[in-house]
Structure formats: C-alpha cells, structure tokens
Amino acid sequence: MASTLVERQDGLVTVTFNRPERKNALNAESWGDLDRVLAEVAVNPEDRALLLTGAGGNFSSGADLSPGDGNTSGLTGRGRQPILTEMRVVGDIINRLHRLPKPTLAAVDGVCVGVAMGLAMACDLVLASDRARFCEVFVRRGLALDGGTSWTLPRHVGLRRAKQLAFFGDMVRAEDALAWGLVNEVVPADELPKVGAAWGRRLAAGPTMTLSLIKRQLDASGSLTFEQALEDEARSQHIAYTTKDMAEGIRSFLERREPKFTGS
C-alpha cells in the first residue's frame, strides 16, 4: 500500500498521508513522496493549489520512530545519517512547502502531532475537524522543537502561548486551537472532506500568480518596515497588472459576472 496518495483535479493537488494503521506516521517513503510532489507542484502550471490531509481519521502522528520498516534506512530514506543531516533534509522539505509559490491548505482530522504539526503550520490555511487534536509532543520525548514550529508557533499564537504548547506538550482540542489562532476554521468531522475540497477548489480557481504575490507579501510582512511594505506592494501590483487574470478580473467586473481565472 502506498504511503502517500496523490490526486489531481481541476488544478487542486490533494496529498493524503496513507498509513492509517500507524495514524499516518511519516516514514522515509512519506518524506520522499512529499519531496517529489512539492517539486512538481512548484513548476507545473496545471497545479494551482495544494491540499494536505490524512487517511483513516487522522492527519499524522508525526515522524515514524519505530524500529520497524519505517526507520530501517533513516528518517528520510537516505541511509543512516547524523540526526543533524536528517533534520536538515526534513527542514528543506518543510521550507519548500512554506515557500511554495501557490496556496496551500491543511485539512486536519484526528491527531496532528510533532513534525506533522509543523507541516500543517507551514501551510497557508488550516481547516480542522471538531475532533482534531494538536500536540507539540517533543518535550515528552526529550527533544527540542522541529518542523519549523519554533518559528511558526509564536507567529500564530504569540510567544507565551507557544511556550505553553512547547513546555508542556499537552494535546490541544480543536476549539482551543481555533481560539488560540492555530487554525482558521473548525467543522464537523463528517464535513471536513467536503469543506476541505471546497476550500481547495476555491484556491485552485483563483488568480494563481496574484495569490503567489499576496502570499509573499504577507509572509514577509514581519521583517519589513511599513515603508518597505508599501514599496513591495507597488512592485507586486506592477507585476499583477501584467497578468491575464488581472485583465479577466476587470473584464468580469465590467460585465457583472464571476471571473474565470486561468492562473496566467
């Protein structure tokens, strides 16, 4: 059985972690699959949005640290390596997800733990079911943070709340995750696939290049002065004006209809 399922429809690429018997723990094959998909989506104009989710009622229980087949060739399938090397490989993959020039969405059901929480936080939007549970489990294993959460958590929930999550390693329920800013919305578990797909299709149907510019603007905002942000907006708007989607957006407004963007 494949560790990861990849489906493409109407510009939306859905990546499903598919080891339900292990709560979708991420093994070497999982990381290799995600690495390949991210490389494809980044350069394929037909791929206009990415949705990450998990099979069997869970997003992912994190890295597969078992001594079985999930760990025989190291965490990432490159043979036994120093943990520093392994974590740099994982970090590069998560950074590519974070930097993907197309909108990304995590649809989280069940557990979302450890490095899997890092993957979800690296996405642009997070949709959770009402039975979703999030955990920065690292401290319970005697480990420091990874998966990019030392950067993403303080930005989503603030420094004090991030320290609470990291120091105690407690499970966080969906309703608290929403209140704290970890997720965008919470929906009933049986509606998560439908709502996740609907959000994904909306992202895939948007003006892809413009969404890429907006993503870069917002992600860079924390390191810019107000004056720098205004200048970046001017340059980004200049680029947006060159796209076919911008012309379609204006035309649809004048014709009083919904725009039909092509991502170009």
Automatic annotation (TrEMBL):
This is Enoyl-CoA hydratase/isomerase family protein. InterPro entries: ClpP/crotonase-like_dom_sf, Enoyl-CoA_hydra/iso, Enoyl-CoA_hydra_C. It comes from the Bacteria. One of its GO terms (molecular function) is catalytic activity. SUPFAM superfamilies: ClpP/crotonase (SSF52096). Belongs to the enoyl-CoA hydratase/isomerase family. Pfam families: ECH_1.
